[in-house]
UniProtKB/TrEMBL annotation:
Bias-annotated ranges (Polar residues): 22-36
Amino acid composition bias (Basic and acidic residues), ranges on this chain: 37-46
Chain segments carrying region Disordered: 22-46
Domain of life of the organism encoding this protein: Bacteria
Protein name as it appears in the record: DUF3576 domain-containing protein
Source organism (scientific name): Ruegeria atlantica
Pfam families, alphabetized: DUF3576
Transmembrane domains' residue ranges: none
């Protein structure tokens, strides 16, 4: 009974060892005519192994989003139907909607790229349903409204 257990452990160890990366210090030669093709395959940076599961450096990076800008964007653009929201990348995509007291319908895409409460963290893109270009002043006015509302939310949050 001990012999099958020992053989099983040896086979398991050999299998796991075969999945490992080549940790040699040999250099990669970009010229395919020079060097061994097996060596090039082992040093390929795109190659993945079983051990990549445990490597935290290859984990997907996420952007921290400023919560005040996020809430202010949803608050200011509440007249637009939300189509897609991704709080990990900081993107809000809305459908077409008409602002209160306006005659044209707009669609907005908001990107919050930084955790700082700053104008550089916010990017708003507007589209009109008629295909007419949206003026830079209108886009700037929406960005200013979002930034003002975010500052109001931050001030209100610090008062509790």
């Amino acid at each position: 009974m001990r012999l099958p257990t020992i053989l099983g452990l040896i086979m398991l160890t050999t299998t796991i060892a075969a999945c490992g990366q080549n940790r040699s210090t040999s250099t990669y030669s970009p010229n395919p005519a020079s060097g061994n093709s097996d060596e090039r395959e082992l040093n390929d940076p795109e190659r993945s192994t079983l051990w990549d599961i445990f490597d935290r450096s290859t984990a997907e990076q996420t952007t921290n989003v400023n919560r005040y800008l996020w809430a202010a964007s949803l608050d200011i653009l509440n007249f637009l139907p939300v189509q897609e929201v991704d709080p990990f990348t900081g993107v809000i995509v809305t459908g077409y909607g008409t602002p209160p007291g306006g005659g044209r319908s707009y669609r907005a895409t908001v990107h919050i790229s930084d955790p700082a409460l700053a104008a550089r963290s916010l990017s708003v893109a507007l589209q009109s349903s008629g295909g007419a270009p949206v003026s830079a002043a209108t886009t700037r006015a929406v960005e200013d409204a979002i930034l003002s509302r975010a500052r109001q939310l931050r001030i209100a949050d610090n008062k509790f």
